[in-house]
Design brief:
The structure holds two protein chains of two kinds.
Chain A lengths: L3 E9 L9 E7 L3 E9 L3 H20 L4 H11 L11 E9 L3 E7 L5 E3 L9 E6 L2 E9 L5 E5 L1 H4 L13 H11 L6 H15 L8 E9 L3 E6 L8 H10 L3 E5 L1 H11 L4 E2 L12 E2 L5 E3 L2 H16 L2 H10 L3 H12 L2 E6 L19 H14 L3 E6 L1
Parallel strand pairs in A: 11-12, 11-16, 12-15, 16-17
Antiparallel strand pairs in A: 1-10, 2-3, 3-4, 4-5, 5-8, 6-9, 7-8, 9-10, 13-14
Helix pairs in contact in A: 1-2, 6-7, 8-9, 8-10, 8-11, 9-10
Chain B lengths: L1 E6 L2 H5 L2 H14 L6 E6 L10 E4 L4 E3 L5 H10 L2
Parallel strand pairs in B: 1-2
Antiparallel strand pairs in B: 1-3, 3-4
Chain lengths: ~400, ~80
Amino acid sequence: MGYFIDVAFDSLNKFGEELCGDNVEIIQTEKEVIVVLADGLGSGVKANILATLTSKIAGTMLKEGASLDETVDTIVHTLPVCNIRKLAYSTFTIVKIDYEGQVHIIEYDNPPFFIHPHGTKIEIKKQSTPIQDKVIKESHFKIQDGDLLTIVSDGVIHAGVGALLNLGWQWDNVNDYLASIAPKEKCSSHIARGLIETCKNLYMERPGDDTTVVAIKVREAEVVDLFTGPPEDPEDDSWVIRKFMKGKGKKVICGGTAAKIASRELERELEVDITYLDKEVPPIAYLEGIDLVTEGVLTLSKTIEKIQKYVEGDFFEACPSFLEGKDGASLLARLLIEDCTHLHLWVGKAVNPAHQNPDFPIDLSIKLKVVKELVNWMEKIGKKVIVTYI
Amino acid sequence: MKKVYVCIGSACHLKGAYQVIHKLEEIIRREKLETTVEVKAAFCLGECTKAVSVKIDEGPVHSVTEDTVEDFFYQYLLGR
């Protein structure tokens, strides 16, 4: 199957702007993943248009199989000319990476990319080609499991200029920062979010330029099978459990009844933990062969809340609570964000009598809605999701 | 040793399983019965309409709330 290319990005808008002048396009095809980061000249609407145009042209052409030369040539010749500066301009970085780890990068005036290998050092030779009065740098190399490739717009390099730091933190400082977190962080979204949050602090919450980070990590695929809710037809129980147990990755069961079915079919005892680590999340249970057993809908809703907070909230505020929380929802959120690359949901459609009780809050009666929401958030953070209704 | 199973499934959780567990533990401490009664958690006991569902060993499921824990304890646990 090859590698899983874990791509995540995050941006800051220049202070006071509603639109970001950087734009990122990520396209996944059967052969490869294409990532384009474009930084439009200036800021606000104009920069946003330039950047969007550039990344869309590049993304679409490359997806349809155009060569990099053709693509770059098209971009350089189509961008509208800025009235004030008499320039048509958007810097960009294009990364093409296939599932074997073969990388091809084109850089046009963006800060040089960062590479942090997990194992052996990677030799990078950049070839320069002049286009009009600018230089395009091209490089080919191969990366492996655990290697991290990071591309940034110049807002990252300039973070803190004239405020906290006289000259901003230079490329080398960013490189050191990334080198220190690369071995620790398993998933690219932690890296992108962490770096962006650091820039935000350096800018003291008032970014002087649009700032974007794209982190690309090559990983072995890690499948998580998640079983929630009993199958519609009880006769399917044993078949479903057999199928579910065949998965090679981590296994999670969300739901008391589902856990009981598994315990019965596997003839293993289910041990429910009595300690409430978080008053709002029901306790977890233990079942041999299953990595995590939790209660159903309430835990799932809470997990979604945590993922949402992780995506939208303040990174450094959200993160410790993930890393330390031992309640069902924190454990599940962490597993889904950090470990999981492919999520396979086994969703039972049996009607739970508990959810039919008119006294309960509305979202209990709609487990399917909760599942759908989970799928949405997981896809938002770049995970592949398959849902099997049973 | 008697085992009291308190359901912590979705329905019972919402109906206050947490409080029931705490109350039970409190009473057991007060009555110094730590060596004869043990509180355990259980996933759905299948009687969600009776939330919070509680059963003693393999006995029938009782419906208990935070306010009726004391009565339940003295009637069913000490009474037997």
